[in-house]
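Protein in question filed below.

…
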Amino acid sequence: MAKATFGAGCFWGVEASFRQLHGVQDVAAGYEGGKLDNPTYRDVCTDLTGHAEVVEIDFNPDEIRFEQLLEAFFGLHDPTQLNRQGPDWGTQYRSVIFYHSPEQQTVAQAFIDRLTAEKRFPRPIVTQVVPAATFWRAEEYHQRYLEKRGLATCHI
């Protein structure tokens, strides 16, 4: 089993999308990259903690490669928007890859370089690639948020 952690705006739709991929064993919504221990949603929404809304993914690398997760990640959001996705704005909604190994760092950066060379997006990619920090699981009401409400997607 391996881990991947991505921030791509509001975590509700991101979580639901990654859950659908074969080889993904579990997805948890949470917060990462900030300076406050055990932050709450209310804390993170102040835009003062430095945390991003993220999903932490447990996946089987024999069934799905990290590159496939990256392809899904870049297809889920606009990685050229700085600190926002759609109507949501603030640093908590930044585009970020928290890598769990030097290999993930190398693969993620090479993936971004390839997307840039291919001109896949009309503006520069602003996705951060940073070492994984402490993942703080979000409150239970955020877990499987869309599923619990009978929704298939949100605005991402």
Remarks:
- Helices lie at 11-19, 41-44, 66-76, 102-117, 145-148.
